[in-house]
Design brief:
The chain is an alpha/beta fold. It is built from 13 helices and nine strands. The strands form three sheets. A three-stranded mixed sheet has the order 1-2-3. Helix 3 (85-114) runs antiparallel to helix 6 and helix 4 runs antiparallel to helix 5.
């Protein structure tokens, strides 16, 4: 997982975003006032359209500034996923304003071209100076906004950066239109006088193009569409998730964006016999994989217990028991004439009645047959497990039992050592436990055979012992 940001880092992030947005508002205010004033004084529709465009920029910058102040608030009881979508809502309002400016500019341009309702332009150096200043300011603030937006993943600032970068081209179009119009008036070429409204149409086309791109992105975010920056990486992400050891299938990957934050829901098929610890390890690996593609994403991983192809019959039997929260051991499976016959030991609470224990075993056997149709019969040995903590009796009094156990073990050449012998008594029952050291390379089948033989030999010598528990250990490590 990505480390949690400190309060100082969070405050620095918020301050940087607000500063960039505030500078953009001030720049838009100055440029808008200069363009409108110059357009009115010169009668240039191109300059007035640029003034209208810049006024939209001003409103958009103000909306962005206030939306960032709100979107930076942490999640609360009313907004569990935070306030990030305020930025998207602000961007949507901006698209509506930009579309309105397009309609007005196109209407005015058509009236001047086809109905000859055009102002007489007054030649002045000021429109050129204002436009050059506007280009310089737009270039500077676009770079600044883009840098901050990329650094802090702000959708609103990125929208403003794209918007202002297109202002450079619209300003150049108006600059060309004014120069051509003034040239036509001086050279008495009426056709060139249409360059000003034509330049206004070019500006409206640029605004419309930016509006369309911004609208698509904003609507996608508001409707929880898969972020465009992750669509191309989805297949790579799925492959990376599927490559995690323990993942059997990647059933679903869903991502969405809310302001600067990403949210991801991943559903993975995992072996049903996994331990909780191993399942958590796989979940953490999957979370890290998603965050490599979406830094800082809030990831939720759902696991689906799945029967793997590598499961043995014993694994499937134990999975059925685990699903019912039951403990079984000493599972034996034999095959006769193409059918399976199972023997198993089922542990139940010692306080459970025979009727309830038998019903539990019957239900377990039925589920095993449904899970594994090849099973023809199931024989369940029901064993009671103590429900209370047993208090060990005096080891001094039972020392003879330890001596008899070691004597029984001495007849097995495979047994290297017997240690940590413990005798406990409860309700007149005697239980003995011990650790048994065996060769490292002894196969488990032989280990089980030796341990079983030792149990039988000891119980013949000490019939008063009701249970013998043996923990086998390799010779290289017998301290567990």
């Amino acid at each position: 997982m990505t480390p949690t940001a400190t309060p100082e880092e969070i405050e620095h992030k918020h301050t940087a975003k607000r500063s960039a947005a505030l500078v953009s508002v001030l720049a838009a205010l100055v440029i808008t006032a200069l363009k409108i004033l110059t357009g009115v004084l010169t009668g240039s529709l191109g300059m007035l359209s640029e003034g209208a465009h810049s006024s939209i920029d001003l409103v958009a910058s103000a909306i962005t500034f206030f939306s960032i102040r709100v979107s930076d608030r942490p999640a609360d009881e009313s907004h569990n996923y935070g306030h990030g979508k305020i930025e998207s809502l602000a961007a949507f309002v901006e698209t509506v304003l930009m579309l309105g400016s397009c309609v007005w500019i196109l209407t005015e341009a058509i009236r001047r071209i086809f109905f000859h309702e055009r102002f007489s332009l007054t030649f002045s150096i000021w429109p050129f100076a204002v436009l050059l200043l506007s280009i310089t300011v737009d270039f500077t603030r676009s770079r600044n906004l883009h840098r901050v937006a990329q650094q802090y993943n702000s959708e609103a600032l990125e929208a403003d950066a794209i918007h202002f970068s297109t202002d450079i081209w619209s300003s150049l179009a108006v600059l060309f239109g004014l120069a051509t119009t003034f040239l036509g008036a001086r050279m008495n070429i009426p056709a060139l006088e249409l360059a000003d409204p034509i330049a206004a149409i070019v500006v409206s086309g640029i605004i419309l193009r930016v509006t369309w791109k911004l609208a698509r992105r904003t609507i996608d975010t508001l409707t929880d569409a898969t972020p465009s920056e992750t669509r191309a990486q989805t297949s790579d992400l799925v492959r990376e998730l599927a490559a995690i050891d323990g993942v059997l299938s990647v059933d679903r990957v869903r991502t969405r964006r809310s302001g600067p934050s990403y949210f991801a829901d991943v559903t993975l098929g995992m072996p049903r016999n996994l331990t909780f610890q191993r399942s958590e390890q796989i979940t953490m690996a999957a979370t890290a994989a998603v965050q490599r593609h979406l830094p800082g994403a809030d990831v939720v991983v759902h696991s689906i217990p799945t029967a793997s192809v590598a499961e043995s019959v014993h694994d499937r039997i134990r999975a059925v028991a685990a699903r019912s929260n039951l403990v079984i051991h000493d599972v034996s499976v034999q095959e006769y004439d193409g059918t399976l016959h199972v023997e198993q030991h089922l542990e139940v609470d010692e306080r459970m009645s025979l009727r309830d224990a038998h019903a539990l075993a019957t239900q377990l056997e039925s589920e095993m047959r449904r899970e594994i149709p090849a099973i023809a019969s199931v024989l369940t040995h029901i064993e009671s497990e103590p429900a209370t903590i047993e208090r060990p009796a005096s080891l001094e009094r039972d020392r003879q039992l330890e001596v008899r156990l070691r004597r029984a073990a001495s007849s097995f050449p495979e047994i290297l050592d017997i240690h940590e012998v413990m005798v406990s008594r409860m309700h007149e029952r005697i239980q003995v436990s011990c650790h048994c050291t065996l060769p490292d390379d002894l196969p488990m089948a032989e280990v089980h055979a030796v341990i079983t033989a030792l149990e039988n030999a000891f119980k013949l010598d000490a019939p008063e012992v009701s249970r013998l528990l043996i923990h086998p250990e390799p010779a290289t490590d017998n301290r567990r």
